[in-house]
Amino acid sequence: ASVTLVVRELNVAPVIPPIVDRFVNGPTNLSFVITATDADRPANALTYSLGADAPAGATIDAVSGLFAWEVAASNIPGAYTISVVVTDDGAPSLSFTQRFAVLARDLAQTITFAPVPAQFTTNRVSLQASASSGLPVGFMLLGGPAQLNAAQLSFNASGSVSVVASQPGDATWLPAPPVTNAFDVLLTPAQITWSN
Q: How far apart are alpha carbons 153 and 181 in whole angstroms?
């Protein structure tokens, strides 16, 4: 009598390598291909899908793994964690989930830096500037006969003074273009007192 042995391969789940987190600035179209691997021989057919945490409008092609999302102004600013699921057609069918993050940042913020009029050497000036993001603005003395302490400016001689206002941004906002103010410092007029 003859015996026939049928050896069936044990199905192994497909794998998606780690997906690099994405950063987008302003409304834009984000798209890239996600590729899974399957150790089975012959390889199983793979199907891609997105988890329930995917933002509205995000899609993935079931066959090619092409992820696409039209990031709208309403999505900004925001941080999104997106799950990608790959499923094989083995017996039994197995799946694997990989997650990545998308950080959607707003367009560049701007700084409003009030002009500083000419000053006398004995004056003290409180610099005033604001960022459209609401983040704090910092000041740096570029040159001139002055001393800067936080936002307080004092002078030790006459000459031209330049100060730059800046805001470096954060996880949501891009750095603001710096704004420079230049003004003159004049000698304080001497006071003459007449006496009889």
A: 13
